[in-house]
Amino acid sequence: MRTLAKLSWVELKLLLREPLTVLFALALPLIILYVLGGVFGEEAEADIFRGVGAMSYYVPAYIGLVIASIGLISIPTHLAGYRERGVLKRFHASSVPAWAVGGAEMVVALVIASASSLLLVAAAALVYDFAAPNSLPTVVGAFLLVAVMFAALGVLLGAVLPTARAAQALGLLLWFTMMMLAGAGPPPEVLPSGMRSVGSLTPLKHVIYVMQDAWLGLDAGRSLLVVVVILVLSILLALRFFRWE
Amino acid sequence: MDQTDSVVVVEHLEKRYGSFVAIEDVSFVVERGEIFGILGPNGAGKTTAVECLQGLRHADGGNLRVLGLDPRHHAAEIRRRIGSQLQESALPDRIKVWEALDLFASVVPGGGDWRVALEQWGLDTKRNARFGSLSGGQRQRLFVALALVNDPEVVFLDEMTTGLDPASRRVAWDLIRRMQDRGTTVVLVTHFMDEAENLCDRLAILDDKRLIALDTPSGLISRHATKRRVLFSTDQPDLTWLDSSQHVTAVHRTRDRVEVEGTGPVLAFVAAALIEHGIAPTDLRVKGADLEDVYLSLTGTGRSD
């Protein structure tokens, strides 16, 4: 536990020493918010955006998108880079356990996701009129769950992908695909039904549902279960297949 | 534990990567408190052997014991009690020296105080320096400090001085002797002859996946390097009479420089023959056998790279 705490703190400091990475994590959601917000406005239409206004739909969805970018791109690239450079081997030889390495990444991911999401909501509130959270504790709980889930998925990807380049390429591909198909880009209702079905197979789709349902006071249903299953599987598989070199 | 017990026991170690055999039937024992060298050309299996001992790789055959424990089943426990400097490893560029020490010290409960290690290895002025800004010698010192921060009973050093300039290498040797003075057993992988000869109490020479010699450096030299070389310079064109001197086995000449190979008291006989022919070179000397001769005669490879 002491090692997990120390490693998390060191990793957080290391991240803050890379201002460009931090800037990317914080600026990306804002750019997406203002561009797409400018496109869709806050017109409530019965047949798209799950029947709520566009921004009421998108703000919780973008929180999911922020979390996905950390889990699919940042964590795998970082961990694979550590493997490539021999940092993980160094940790291994000094008996730093795999769960502490993965755990520290998840702690850092939670911190960055929280900061980024708060900034996103604040920036949205400045410009748009959208639904307030139905229940704040539910939203916080849902946020923690989905953030931990994507962080665990990121650790799994980082645990097995051999190089930082491979991790970055795969991560970007997954992230863009999910963004477009899972309802964080175009409204899902305008997608052809085939694409929509593919979209509903992506983890991001269920993450967005969980966030929106918590935010808007809808029934979370099956997506909550899917998120929990992905979380548990990711942790088990990451521990099982963690590669130090 | 007994003070004279064996810290590392290797019996018939075997390791394959797919169908490639990396190491085959290697056995040796490292006693507490010694500096034990593992010497050999690149690809001889040195790194594979020590990584199996640290539980970083799984041996395919044979019996291994480190501090009485089997690395195949107690790797985590072994790694907490040993120190390790790896050939290909690094730290994040932006981590500070003190942060790395603090982190690694936290892994083993009740391990040493990293502040002591910081001072002991002359890193106190570099306390807040980032890893990426350290020189090669400073990085080595940090890796040594990290390897020793948990007060290990045995440390494994894999090509610690490769890539260091001669001055830094001397400093590293001094660090290794200081480890031994603290009572730490040292297993040193190297491909430098002078390093092995200077530092090691005993040496295992690996070549082509196998153990080909195991002894003290002087034992290896007296057993395997019986040839002596007498060197001098002369402008005398005809030296054929040297060939028939007693104890001379061969004469090589490159312009003015002459190298006479021979056995036992060859120096005295060469000197007498030279005087007899009216030659008194000022640079007459004998080159004693060293580990390099042993190594070359045993491995039959070129000089170490």
What does this structure look like?
The complex is a heterodimer of chains A (245) and B (305). With 245 residues, chain A is mainly α. Chain A has one domain. Helices cover 78% and strands 0% of the residues of chain A. In chain A, helix 2 (19-40) packs across helix 5 (98-127), helix 3 packs parallel to helix 6 and helix 6 (136-160) packs parallel to helix 10. With 305 residues, chain B is an alpha/beta fold. Chain B is 32% helix and 28% strand. In chain B, strand 6, helix 6 and strand 7 (185-190) form a beta-alpha-beta unit. The A-B interface holds A 2-3, 6-7, 10, 13-14, 17-18, 82, 85-87, 89-90, 92-97, 244 and B 54, 56, 76, 79-80, 84, 86, 88-92, 94-95, 99, 102-104, 106-109, 146, 150.
Summed up:
The complex is a heterodimer of chains A (245) and B (305). Chain A has helices at residues 2-16, 19-40, 54-85, 87-93, 98-127, 136-160, 164-181, 193-199, 203-216, 222-241.
Structural descriptors:
heterodimer; A: 245 residues; mainly alpha; 10 helices; B: 305 residues; Rossmann fold; Alpha-Beta Plaits; 2 domains; four-stranded antiparallel β-sheet; elongated
